Amino acid sequence: MKFDRKTLFIVAGWAFGIAALIAAVQFALTQAAERLIKSSAEHTAVRYAHNISAQLPELPRLFAEQSLGRETLADLKRLRSLGDVFRFKLFDPRGALLMVSDDLDLADPLANARASGQRLGSHHSANEKVAEIVLGGANFIDLQDGAGKPGRPPLYTEAYVPLIVEGAVLGVIEVYVDSTPQATRIRAAFAEVALIVAGALLLVGGALGVQWMQRRRDRQRAETRVRYLAKHDVLSGALNRASFNEALEQAAWRHEQGGPDFAVMCIDLDRFKEVNDAHGHAGGDAVLREATHRLQSLVRHGDLLARLGGDEFAILQSDVAHSDDLHSLGQRIVDALAAPYTVGGQRVVCGSSVGAARFGVDAKNVEDLLHKADVAMYRAKSSGRGRFSFYDHELDRQLEERRELARELREALVTGAMAMHYQALYAADGQTLLGYEALMRWKHATRGMVPPSTFIPLAEDTGQIEALGQWALERSCAEAVAWPMPLTVSVNLSAAQFRGEHDLVDVVSRALDKSGLPADRLVLEITESLLMSDTEAVVNTLTRLSALGVSIAMDDFGTGYSSLAYLWRFPFDKVKIDRAFTQGLGDDKKVALIVRSIVSLAHSLGIRVNAEGVETEPQAHMLRKMGCDELQGFLLGRPVPANTLMHDGIAHRQPDVPKPSATDFAALETRPMAL
Ligand code: C2E
Ligand code: MG
Ligand code: MG
Fold first, then answer.
1. Which one of 167, 444, 518, 658 counts the least CB within 10 Å of its CB?
2. What is the DSSP string of 215-276?
3. Would you say the CB of residue 423 lies under 6 angstroms from ligand 1?
4. Atom number of ligand 1 nearest to Cα 614
5. Which residue among 423, 426, 439, 450 has the greatest number of ligand 1 atoms within 8 angstroms of its CB, and so is best to mutate?
6. Does residue 7 belong to any structural domain of this protein?
């Protein structure tokens, strides 16, 4: 057990207190023992005096005539040592010494005493002394040490007792009582008591002391834990944001006083959300702990590691002499975090993007330093993830612009700056209007029309896509309900809407209910990237959407990694061949071959085919010949606001390609692909 100075001081004080208490008890017991010894001696002396008075009828004569008869002498000799009494002296009523028992064997036992002139008390007060003794019964009891005094026991008591016969005071007898045996007994008994009391005190005091120390230790532990929690992140044990900022401020202060250079690294785990989605929060936590452990093993003594939140870490690297130092640590971090993790027995890969900024070089204050390290991390992330990057001014400017745009986008929905434009979808003949694709537009006050390729990813990154997507759906349905039958409206959905806070099926059915648009006039367009992650949940949502009666189209078909594979996962109503194919048709014969194969495959699965980006008549002609069911592109119409739509070429609904039922679809899965 470790003690701090304060605890040692208190323990020493405690021990001293107990020792003092024991000493006090010991002292009190000694005093009590002395009193007991004296009182026992007094008792003996009084009894002795009483015996003498009773057994010596001649005694009044001895005092009166100051002479000793033979018989009295013999009696006195007999009585001079009786029991514990070993000596006595007689004083007359005036306090003068009459006789000492030691002189009984002399020829004149009274001569010595007379010659000595000894008196009780001082010469003048002898009478008063006698009177005092008479009044007190027995008095002046004195415990004496016999060591070195011949004829004396080791411990004896002198007691003065009045001799009173038939009411008359004869004088005073000083009785010498051997207190040695009594004292030995009493002291032994009291020593035992003292030992027991001291033991009990030690035991109680010790127990109380131990209890106090335990309580103090528990309190100290709790305080230490509270202090630790206030500074650290509970999950990882790394510093938390507040204490990291504090450390940065201190480093900045030291730097200003001529202290060492330092830098901050921001580390963000790549695709951590996917780990959380696939392995639950416990799995995510395990990865975070392991990542912390790896980072901790990389930093030098004196460097600080913090978890700023989520999958975001930061390192304060002190004493950075050269940017090579930073680069080397950054690269080692990227390598260490790229190693696979094991979560619930499964191998999980989750790399990291790392950015660094130097104090005094990239930033002049702590807040800016953190911001710039974050910008550098973002640069690493946007240039392909799994890499290290230094702070870059140009990127910072772009990011700032992006943040500004995100702020403006948030306002755009409220201020009515968003609009839906509609691009016509025609049947293969290019004459029959089937419906429109709804495309979102942002009429920015100063920047003009901001293209969806800019603001849709921004909305996805900043969590605004749910609100925007919901608005687009409701707006498109509300405008489409006014179109002539059987024109359809195709609305694009973002992958983020499938993972959003609100159930997408509720959002869609609410848009239908609010507008009164029949479900079979709504087409939802999704891109295949949606199916790349969490396929099961997405397919489940698609199935529920399909059950509402809406159609599902796969947009930008052919641009993903494994477009064909996704066709088997869900019975899409339509695929939209990406405009890159349409526009590549004239240049390369292989493109035509691919498009033809897609059409053939889709038709065999009962899926309609739309060709996007038709800009020329030859493209339209070729696509028609290849069997595409729908054409869309600038040749046939550009996206325009709803109030300018003419609905030219409207016809009755085109006969659909016969679509297999769900069971047929399952059976189709085993059919070889006709490519
Ligand atoms: P998309 O769904 O594939 O939409 C077709 C895009 O191709 C539109 O671009 C359209 O203007 C453009 N386009 C149509 N015909 C031609 C053509 O002949 N030549 C060329 N070069 N382009 C043509 P836009 O409107 O800029 O939209 C871009 C993408 O933004 C859309 O691609 C869609 O993925 C997304 N988007 C647009 N509106 C929304 C929306 O409301 N929600 C979501 N989630 N995404 C949207
Ligand atoms: Mg689309
Ligand atoms: Mg498209």
1. 167
2. HHHHHHHHHHHHHHHHHB-TTT-SB-HHHHHHHHHHHHHHHHTT---EEEEEEEETTHHHHH
3. yes
4. 18
5. 439
6. no
Query: What residue numbers bound the domain in which 609 lies?
Result: 412-670
Task: Read off the DSSP letter of residue 82.
Answer: B
Hey, whose CA ends up nearest to atom 24 of ligand 1?
452
What DSSP state is assigned to residue 95? Answer: S
Shared domain check, 368 and 489? no
Does 381 share its domain with 417? no
Which of 492, 527, 581 has most ligand 1 atoms within 8 Å of its beta carbon, as the pocket-test mutant? 492
Q: What pLDDT, in 10s, does the model give residues 53-94?
A: 888 888 888 888 788 788 888 888 888 888 899 999 999 888
d(CA 650, CA 354) in angstroms, rounded, equals 56
* Listed residue (493, 458, 499) closest to 473, CA to CA: 493
Residues 289 and 193 in one domain: no
553-611 pLDDT, tens per residue? 999 998 876 667 778 788 899 999 999 999 999 888 899 999 999 999 999 999 999 99
Residues in Cβ contact with 136 at an 8 Å cutoff, skipping those fewer than 6 apart = none
Give φ, ψ of 387 to 5 degrees.
Answer: -150, 170
Which one, of 378, 399, 401, lies nearest residue 388 by Cα? 378
Contacts of 338 (CB under 8 A, 6+ apart): 349, 351, 352, 386
Quick one: which atom of ligand 1 is closest to the CA of 472?
Answer: 41
- The helix-helix angle for 180-231 and 5-55 (nearest 10°) equals 160
> 635 C-alpha vs ligand 1 centroid, how far in Å?
15
Name the phi and psi angles at 304, rounded to 5: -125, 140
84: CATH: 3.30.450.20
638 lines ligand 1 (CB under 6 A): no
Closest CA to 202 of 210, 214, 192: 210
Closest ligand 1 atom to residue 578 Cα is 3
Same domain, 574 and 496: yes
- For 132-192, the DSSP string reads HHHHHSSEEEEEEE-TTSTT--SEEEEEEEEEEETTEEEEEEEEEEE-HHHHHHHHHHHHH
Please say whether the beta carbons of 570 and 552 come within 8 A. Answer: yes
| Chain Cα centroid distance, residue 395 | 37
Is residue 443 pLDDT above 60, yes or no? yes
Query: Across the strands, what pairs with 346?
Result: 343
- 30 and 173 housed in the same domain: yes
Tokens representing 639?
A: 């996206």
- Tokens coding 446: 């100063």
Distance CA 341, CA 344 (A): 10
Q: Is 568 in the pocket of ligand 1 (CB under 6 A)?
A: no
DSSP structure string for 338-376: HS-EEETTEEE---EEEEEEEBTTTBSSHHHHHHHHHHH
Using DSSP, how many helices (H) and how many strands (E) does the chain show?
22, 22
Burial class (CB in 10 A: 0-12, 13-18, 19+), 205: middle
Task: Determine what percent of the chain is predicted with pLDDT higher than 90.
Answer: 49
